[in-house]
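hi! just following up on the protien thing from before. the input was this:
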Amino acid sequence: MPRIIGIDIPANKRLIISLTYIYGIGSFLASQVVKKLKLDPDMKASKLTDEDIAKINTILQSDYQVEGDLRRLVQNNIKRLISIHSYRGQRHRLGLPVRGQRTRTNARTRKGKKRTVAGRKQAPK
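and the predicted 3d structure came back as:
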């Protein structure tokens, strides 16, 4: 298994698909990196040489924010929203949907402790 930026990428998949296993790299960015290095996008990741892996490492670390740096950036942004008491920060703190989704019927699959959403009163029978 080739190891890029501390992440083991699957060896038996195409190079472009394998690169998407790194946090912050989607299919578009993976194809850009492969095109920049003039590698074959259809070759298996197991065929990468040590030299190719070193090139991919240097490009990803110098030109893009991926893995630890990107995770840290996202967490800092969320902490900032919480600290300034913005609406989005309050939603993050409560573990509710942040981007305007409905909560009356959905939003039950969030991770963590089960939260009850204020429901309507039962009609008398």
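The first strand starts at residue 3 and ends at 4.
The CA atoms of residues 79 and 89 lie 8 Å apart.
cheers
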